[in-house]
């Protein structure tokens, strides 16, 4: 697929991509961005006719996406799979692809460019390089290497260096990762980095860091998906992404300057994202992780298979009902029990083939956001968070059983579990990992005994 083949495609981008100028920089050009923010941006351009919001997409590690998109003039398709129907659309909003390790200076220059009004991010939990307490992890070797003066490779380093060089309008930096209060969280990291690097300037205070909640299930693309896209399009698309029909974006209405008319494409702009974000992280992402670990332990390859197991579906429902809902303040107009049911229904979509191992990865940085806040709140309310503890116990057994753990703290986790021969020893070894569990949880006897009970059952 490329611009030449466009005229023959059954689906075309809504706006002629050649007319779009870059106004957005996106850090983390994975499948999720291509099935989410890029789609909202494309639809907003179509509805408003505005041409200033093309995207410069930055891959943080490998050149794979660049190699896929460059020969296709940045075009790619989104293959939407519902339970019984599928559709495909071509997206043209990504106008440039940079690979950070190849061209770190170009990344900073794009962020600094006057024409860039908004930077969006999907760099996953570990991409923020935060310490477990929330601030910047100054012991991180990559942060240290950036601070030592190389062209920055870390996300916070790129943002701080770009901000320091800005001379034009204030910048909006919009985190789209599954983190609690992701906007203020990122703002603190960037400011701490700038302090450590001796970077100053009014651009830092003028920048806005709105919070946002993003939602769409986007599994990793497989060769079979690429073949299916080729069948539907009549040409090959190496960069196709697969997604469920559901799509949601709730954004704090706090921009430093201009922004794309994402609301025209269905994004909700609001004063307070927190209730949306808490509901999504504690219900959707928490049950997703629970099903991933329990499902993988039962040998299920996909989330859909796991949630179709009655016992596992019951465990997820129980988590939502007894532990999560009592900790939440529902956002206006959201009925929490129905939201919980709708989430499980989405997981059951058999066409997505979302791997349990994909959702299971990076548990050490996902658990705190998805489950440990709920556990803390329940303990504070003198309740026993038995269901949330089951999800954590499933992670523990999964870590102990897996030969390789896909996690930024894999070495530490594997070392901790190496000599843990009994359920109690396993719980004690992992609960002591202070980069995962905060002090109050490490010392909670209630949590410890719940974990020992569940790990014993799961190990049987
Ligand atoms: C998933 C999320 O991989 C994971 O950990 O829980 O990526 C999930 O699919 C999205 O947050 C859905 O919006």
Automatic annotation (TrEMBL):
<dbReference type="Pfam" id="PF08125">
    <property type="entry name" value="Mannitol_dh_C"/>
</dbReference>
<dbReference type="InterPro" id="IPR050988">
    <property type="entry name" value="Mannitol_DH/Oxidoreductase"/>
</dbReference>
<keyword id="KW-0560">Oxidoreductase</keyword>
<dbReference type="InterPro" id="IPR013118">
    <property type="entry name" value="Mannitol_DH_C"/>
</dbReference>
<dbReference type="Pfam" id="PF01232">
    <property type="entry name" value="Mannitol_dh"/>
</dbReference>
<dbReference type="InterPro" id="IPR013131">
    <property type="entry name" value="Mannitol_DH_N"/>
</dbReference>
<protein>
    <submittedName>
        <fullName>Mannitol dehydrogenase family protein</fullName>
    </submittedName>
</protein>
<dbReference type="InterPro" id="IPR000669">
    <property type="entry name" value="Mannitol_DH"/>
</dbReference>
<dbReference type="InterPro" id="IPR008927">
    <property type="entry name" value="6-PGluconate_DH-like_C_sf"/>
</dbReference>
<dbReference type="InterPro" id="IPR036291">
    <property type="entry name" value="NAD(P)-bd_dom_sf"/>
</dbReference>
<feature type="domain" description="Mannitol dehydrogenase C-terminal">
    <location>
        <begin position="272"/>
        <end position="453"/>
    </location>
</feature>
<dbReference type="InterPro" id="IPR013328">
    <property type="entry name" value="6PGD_dom2"/>
</dbReference>
<feature type="domain" description="Mannitol dehydrogenase N-terminal">
    <location>
        <begin position="23"/>
        <end position="263"/>
    </location>
</feature>
């Amino acid at each position: 697929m490329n611009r030449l083949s466009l005229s023959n495609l059954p689906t075309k981008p809504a706006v002629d991509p050649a007319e779009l100028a870059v106004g957005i920089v996106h850090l983390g050009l994975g499948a999720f961005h291509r099935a989410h923010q890029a789609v909202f941006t494309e639809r907003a351009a179509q509805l408003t006719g505005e041409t200033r919001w093309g995207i410069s997409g930055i891959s943080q590690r490998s050149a794979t996406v660049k190699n896929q998109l460059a020969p296709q003039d940045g075009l790619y398709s989104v293959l939407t799979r519902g339970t019984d129907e599928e559709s495909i659309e071509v997206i043209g909003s990504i106008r440039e692809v940079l690979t950070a390790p190849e061209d770190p200076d170009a990344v900073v220059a794009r962020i600094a460019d006057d024409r860039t009004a908004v930077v969006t991010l999907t760099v996953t939990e570990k991409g923020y390089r935060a310490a477990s307490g929330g601030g910047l992890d100054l012991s991180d070797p990559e942060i240290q290497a950036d601070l030592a003066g190389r062209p920055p490779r870390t996300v916070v380093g790129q943002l701080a260096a770009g901000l320091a060089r800005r001379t034009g309008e204030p910048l909006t930096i919009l985190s789209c990762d599954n983190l609690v209060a992701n906007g203020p969280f990122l703002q603190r990291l960037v400011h701490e980095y700038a302090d450590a690097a001796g970077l100053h300037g009014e651009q830092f205070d003028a920048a806005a860091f709105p919070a946002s909640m993003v939602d769409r299930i986007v599994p990793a693309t497989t060769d079979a998906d690429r073949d299916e896209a080729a069948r539907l399009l009549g040409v090959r698309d190496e960069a196709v992404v697969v997604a469920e029909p559901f799509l949601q974006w709730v954004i704090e209405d706090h921009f430093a300057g201009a922004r794309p008319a994402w609301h025209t494409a269905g994004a909700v702009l609001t004063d307070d994202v927190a209730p949306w974000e808490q509901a999504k992280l504690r219900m959707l992402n928490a049950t997703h992780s629970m099903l991933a670990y329990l499902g993988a332990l039962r040998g299920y390859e996909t989330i859909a298979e796991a949630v179709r197991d009655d016992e596992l579906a019951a465990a997820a429902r129980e988590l939502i009902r007894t532990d999560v809902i009592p900790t939440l303040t529902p956002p206006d107009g959201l009925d929490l029990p129905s939201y919980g049911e709708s989430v499980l229904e989405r997981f059951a979509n058999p066409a997505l083939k979302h791997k349990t191992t994909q959702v299971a990865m990076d548990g050490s940085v996902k658990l705190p956001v998805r489950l440990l806040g709920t556990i803390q709140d329940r303990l504070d309310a003198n309740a026993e968070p038995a269901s949330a503890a089951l999800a954590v116990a499933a992670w523990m057994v999964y870590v102990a059983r897996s030969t390789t753990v896909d996690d930024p703290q894999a070495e530490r986790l594997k070392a901790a579990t190496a000599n843990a021969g009994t359920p109690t020893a396993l719980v004690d070894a992992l609960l002591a990992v202070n980069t995962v569990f905060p002090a109050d949880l490490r010392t909670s006897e209630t949590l410890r005994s719940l974990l020992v009970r569940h790990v014993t059952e799961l190990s049987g």
